[in-house]
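Before we proceed, please read the two lines closing this message. Report back on whether the structure tokens fit the sequence:
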Amino acid sequence: MSETKVIIAENIKKYIDTKGIKHNWIIERIGISKPTFYKLLKGEGNINQFEEKILKLFRLKDPFYFHRTDIDLPKSLAELNRPENFMDYVALSYHGEENLEFNKGMEVFREFVELIDVLHSVSSPVNEVLERELS
């Protein structure tokens, strides 16, 4: 097994873990069997064939994206959803003076948005169908 294959396999594995994507989803999308997919993640088999499909699946333009030892991974969902990121995003578009009152107000606003998101997911049509089936 070549060192390049190992680097590619490790980077693909890290990318998938960072994105929080289930293996079954990828297996279905690129048309690969489970054993072949897991061999790919170990650096075995014809990595180049499936690397192209994975690049296309994730819309990565750089054909050597997974070949680097210092790969620049995307932010995970947990990192994107951190409260500090919300405050940083708001601060970029706020042109007034940032003070304690502003920060408290934005914290309440963030919690309000999270509450709406939870209520929206609870009241979705899928949940209504499930409730009817359980009754």
